[in-house]
Amino acid sequence: MDANEHIIVWDNCLRIIEQIIEPQKFQIWFKPIKPLSFENQTLTIEVKSDFFRQYLEEVYLDLLKKTLKRVIGAGARLVYRVPVVKNEKPMTYPAASAIAPVNKTISVNTYPTEGNPGPFVFPGVKRVQINPRLNPVYNFDNLIQGECNRMGVTAGENISNTPGSTLFNPLFIFGGPGLGKTHLAQAIGLAITKKHPDLVVLYVTGNEFKTQYMDAVNVRNKLTDFLAFYMKIDVLIVDDIQDLLGIGSQNAFFNVFNHLHENGKQLIFTSDRAPVDLQNFEDRLLSRLKWGLSVELQKPSYETRLEMLRHRCFREGVEIDDEVLVFLATNIQSNFRELEGALISLIANATLGHQKVTVELARKITRNIVTETKNELTIDKVKKVVCEYFNISDSSLLSKSRKRELVQARQIAMYMSRNLLNCSLSTIGAEMGKDHATVVHACTTVSDLIEHYPDFRKYVQDIEKMLVSK
Prior knowledge:
Number of helices: 19
Oligomer: single chain
Strand content: 5-15%
Helix content: 40-55%
């Protein structure tokens, strides 16, 4: 490889940029840049300050990306190096990986406001451009893949290649808070906008759809426009679909779903619970939500958590010792959101307080943000405490014995897992070796016994106290 290849690449970029922008701006913002290295289609450049880097990102990012793609190729990447004061290492920043996507304009039928259109009244046509409402940061490059989300990522990548034409339609992504449901759903949407710019993509929350529907029915003749708008979408992403409550809004969504699905359009949903656990949903809508592929996102493993922290450090342009990252990954196990929150708080405290990033500082930060790992409730901990309370073994709890004391202990363990941990019925069933119907029956039975039998209520309260104190 030519030792001066980075200089040659950057000179070729400058020749193109010089022909596009004003000479004075070229001299101010591009001439001072120094090329440092070029490896694996990644060009590293040095800029004078972080303000300089931010200005380039805000004003010239699109120009830089197009120029690099022209000179280097489709896989071109840009990395900034910013010298810092004193004798510390320079900071490294990757260039923003994407700009906000834009949909093509589409024609939407509109009807007169004075009354419902008759059979011989032709609607007007309006050209509109729908904002896809996708965050460019939530792309596949920034999504760390592990066993916790591998199936969802694989399905999402397949969908992005041929949206609407796979068996994964609809795709239903569910799991607890902070596990990356929104990130994965938006990453699929972003990939589709890049690979299929002729398709119209829209991200909306379940609550927003419900609010838009209510606005439409309260404005004369706007419900038809509302339905016509959604039926123009090629890829519809509905986040937190569990919030889509109300007979009217569900009926409208049912019609939108049918139209889009029958016409080969892609549907993607996220929820904090499995389809079978959704409450106050019409059966006909529930059956459609279960139609395609349902994917549950699990808690990330230690390796995945550590990899996510390293990736986020690179995105933030900071270098943190692995010892600190290992501490965070070991002590924050619940979800990605808490992990990222702890890392950002750590960086902010170190920067604003002019402190060195150490394990001790990380311990102080995490103590104020998350509950210590030893206090985290899990189904295993629930089973252990129930066994301890009733003085039975774990094997007895999971056995098929119909002895009254074992049955009640089992039912209490399932009830606790559902009500204290908010675990899905399918997850509880898998952990307890029971089917979905058995878990539902157990939760209902325990609720009834608590209401009518004070002694039984005391059992449950005692176990709750043990779980909290341990």
